[in-house]
Amino acid sequence: MVLYQPQNGYCYNSDTHFLFNFICKNLEKYKNINGELLDIGSGSGILGLLLAKKYHKIVLNQVEIQEIFQFLSIKNSAINNIVSIMHKGSFLDFNFDKKFDFCVSNPPFYHCNVIKSENENIKIARYNDSLPLRDFIKKASDVLKNGGKFFFCYDSKQLNEIILYLNEFKLNLESLQFVYPNISKEASLVMVYTKKDSKSLVRIFEPLVVFDEVKEFTQNVQNIYKEAGTHSVKVECE
After folding, report:
1. How far apart are CA 134 and CA 161, in angstroms?
2. pLDDT for the residue numbered 121
3. CATH class of the domain comprising 2-235
4. CA torsion sign, 96 to 102 to 108 to 110?
5. Distances from the Cα of 112 to the Cα of 8, 132, 223, angstroms
């Protein structure tokens, strides 16, 4: 899958590949994956496009606030022959005319009080000023159908708040997976699967370790990249 990205701006990273793999693992038990999927903050479109390519019966919707990424999401959908509906605007403010079976997102999760990039495009994509955690979870719950599935990744240090808000908005925690830079460091990322109006017990996946002792990708990470099969092309965007 060829994906155009901005030469000077925010580019997708390994988090999205890991989240794609996590979603697929959670959907393995379902035989017929179909329905409306919303990629929240679609960026260049990578996550939704990977899922639409794998699950052909999914109807892909993308919502994106930044014009540069609206353009790139549409362009990347076209060059990969995937039909997508682009909702232009803020996820929090958008009035959708339908409910969704799936919501997926690699949202901005850095705290607004940390040092920020001077690049406005990167600020919006990385820092949670424009998409605070509680508002993000509340809106996702609002736009999901009963029984709808919600997948996202976030800063693992904020897990307490994540669980608090999921409970507040009737989203049951179905599974978690932690990502570790290497075996000697703390988890840096948590991937979350929740379901609306469910009462299942939570499943904890085995940790995903990114680098081995010689600073090479672990076999698990190599397999994830191979499965995704993405190729990035940097372009100048006005």
Report:
1. 8
2. 43
3. alpha beta
4. positive
5. 22, 9, 34
Per-residue pLDDT tens digits for 72-107:
999 999 999 999 999 999 999 999 999 999 999 999
User: What ranges do the domains of the chain cover?
Assistant: 2-235
pLDDT of amino acid 108: 87
Which of 23, 98, 25, 108 minimizes the C-alpha distance to 61? Answer: 98
What is the per-residue pLDDT for 125?
42
- The predicted pLDDT at position 120 comes to 47
Q: How many Å apart are CA 148 and CA 140, to the nearest integer?
A: 10
Q: Which two tokens stand for residue 149?
A: 């599935």
Which position has the token pair 């919501």? 103
Per-residue exposure over 184-208, b if at least 16 CB sit within 10 Å of its own CB, e if not:
eeebebbbbbbbbeeeeeeeeeeeb
Name the nearest CA neighbour of 39 among 72, 62, 7, 19: 62
Q: Which residues pair with 35 in a beta bridge?
A: 58
pLDDT of residue 12: 75
> Exposed, middle or buried: residue 45 (CB in 10 Å: 0-12, 13-18, 19+)?
buried
